Amino acid sequence: MPSLGRLHLITDTRPGRDPLAVLRAALPLARAELVVQVRVTDDATDREAYELAREVVARCRPYGATCLVNDRLHVALAVAAAGGHVGADDLPVPAARRVLGPTAVLGATAREPGTAVAAVAAGASYLGVGPCHATDTKSGLPDPIGPAGVRAVAAAVPVPVIAIGGVTAASVPALRAAGAYGVAVVGALSGAADPAATTAALLRALAC
Ligand SMILES: Cc1ncc(COP(=O)(O)OP(=O)(O)O)c(N)n1
Ligand SMILES: Cc1nc(C(=O)O)sc1CCOP(=O)(O)O
Ligand SMILES: [Mg+2]
């Protein structure tokens, strides 16, 4: 399995956002370092998720970037994405692994070491760990765990930890120092005035 990219761009399909424009800006800079997670709003249809994921897979391919699909693993399979990401309300990790097969990339959300260890034992190949910082992008999240929370999880598992939640280029150094392999962002890129410049800043921070 090729090594996982360190910059995870999660698509923002909320009204007024343009996920493909952000992707166009990020891809030529981040190339194989980019993992694009196709995440649609809960009210999106499977057809909408499929069309977006198909487009993302096609755009990622020439750059060697990776496309994953959030939650909807049948969509991941249908578009031949590299894998998917599941959390507490989605298919359990063992079931997700069965659906995706043994070689797919499978991410699981873990907020503390116990869940993290269980997710890895059940077949997760990386963990999304957060929320690291406060964020308006998703409601109903628990309190931020900060770099200390990331450190606790990263110390407990042998797989890459991807820090998520309110991540910006400025917060990357502390998260990396805490053991994060990479970061996942929504708002830092989808709300950026200059997504290319922000991608470059995130990549610089991740390279240190
Ligand atoms: C990299 C990464 N980490 C965590 C999540 C959150 O997944 P989940 O808890 O299933 O919540 P939703 O994204 O489905 O709302 C993620 N998507 N990616
Ligand atoms: C989708 C999601 N899941 C999170 C978790 O902690 O599980 S935080 C989050 C939103 C991340 O968006 P932003 O980069 O704009 O803060
Ligand atoms: Mg989910």
Task: Offer a concise description of the structure.
The chain has helices at 19-30, 46-60, 73-78, 93-100, 113-121, 146-154, 172-177, 187-190, 195-207; strands at 7-10, 34-38, 66-70, 83-86, 105-109, 126-129, 161-164, 182-185.
> Uncertain segments of ≥5 residues (pLDDT<50)?
none
Radius of gyration: 15 Å
**Fourth-level CATH superfamily:** Aldolase class I
Question: Could you estimate the helical fraction of the residues in percent?
Answer: 25-40%
Strand order of the biggest β-sheet: 1-2-3-4-5-6-7-8
What is the average of the pLDDT values? Answer: 98
SSE ordering? EHEHEHEHEHEHEHEHH
Q: What small molecules are bound in this structure?
A: ligand LCLJCK34, the ligand Cc1nc(C(=O)O)sc1CCOP(=O)(O)O, magnesium ion
CATH topology descriptor: TIM Barrel
How many structural units, i.e. domains? Answer: 1
SS-based class: alpha/beta
Question: From the 3D coordinates, which CATH architecture would you assign?
Answer: Alpha-Beta Barrel
**CATH class, please?**
Alpha Beta
How much β-strand is present in the residues?
Answer: 15-25%
Count of DSSP H/I helices: 9
Number of strands: 8
**Ends apart, CA distance between termini:** 24 Å
Q: What is the general shape?
A: globular
Main sheet properties = 8 strands, parallel, barrel
Binding site for 4-amino-2-methyl-5-(diphosphooxymethyl)pyrimidine: 70, 109, 138
Family: Belongs to the thiamine-phosphate synthase family.
Cofactor: Mg(2+)
EC number: 2.5.1.3
